[in-house]
Amino acid sequence: MLAYRHQFHAGNFADVMKHALLARLLVGLSRKDAPYCYVDTHAGLGRYDLSHPWSQKNAEHASGVAQVWQRSDAPAELSAWLDIVRAMNPNGRLEHYPGSPEIAQRLRRAADRMVLSELNPTDHAALKANMAGVRGVSVILQDGYKTLSSHLPPAERRGLVLLDSSFDRAGEFTRLVQAVRLAHERFATGVMAVWYPLMDPSAMRRFERSLHDSGVRRILLLELSVHPEDWRESLRGCGLIVINPPYGFDREARGLLAWLATALAPDAGSSRVQWLVSE
Ligand SMILES: C[S@@+](CC[C@H](N)C(=O)[O-])C[C@H]1O[C@@H](n2cnc3c(N)ncnc32)[C@H](O)[C@@H]1O
User: Fold this and answer.
1) Is the pTM of this model over 0.90?
2) How far is the CA of 82 from the centre of ligand 1 (A)?
3) Using one digit for the tens of pLDDT, what is the confidence trace for 91-118?
4) 164 catalytic, yes or no?
5) Which one is the CATH code of 34-47+100-277: 3.30.300.20, 3.40.50.150, 3.40.50.970, 3.50.50.100?
6) 172 CB near ligand 1 (under 6 Å)
């Protein structure tokens, strides 16, 4: 338990997918003036130094963010995220990578709040240091699944929950569906984004079926694959379930993911955007 450290993976293709979509969701929430609350259940360090030995070990960012951050032909839907990556690396060398808390911090407005929970004490301490002096942020050392009960619904009654599990325990897909149900019971109008790895097709069909049968409506499924379906050597792809996405997000995501699939994996890349349950 808690052997997972995101420093090894920061900026890989899965981060690119998740963070580009997260930035679009937050931009969508900012279209209305009323403040929102961003809840990140598995927050990680906040931001990452890519020269760290753990990031250098497998250099996962080389096949992720490094492939796209300087592309001049990226679609407009990617710019909210790309602008942040570029602002953090002003001298043209890719040295820093924004985690989900940093992205939310840079996109939120003065009245928007953030709740960040992280269970690993070392990573929690690093996150707290990275957010030091920032107003409107709670950084808590807590199981992210408990954060759903302790912090939902937010006082603002508007918000986005990101559930970005490290999938280091058996039974995580079941836990995710329970978490979706719980979050929906407590905060039915909230936007929720849940990251997951693409496993074998039968496991994915079970996951989709249990989400479909959960009783929760407006579930959009987004996936990006960088390897074929029978690939077993490493993560072949990943997905994001988004509940209650802002208006127009499905259309934006379609273009964004199609472009990323080609940019990150010209030979094997593919993407999927599908309403699992509509209105
Ligand atoms: C995939 S990483 C998060 C990355 C981050 N959301 C981002 O996009 O930058 C998952 C994080 O969850 C932490 N973690 C693992 N189990 C947890 C739990 N039950 N509750 C909260 N955090 C947990 C891990 O220590 C790790 O930092």
Assistant:
1) yes
2) 23
3) 999 999 999 999 999 999 999 999 999 9
4) yes
5) 3.40.50.150
6) no
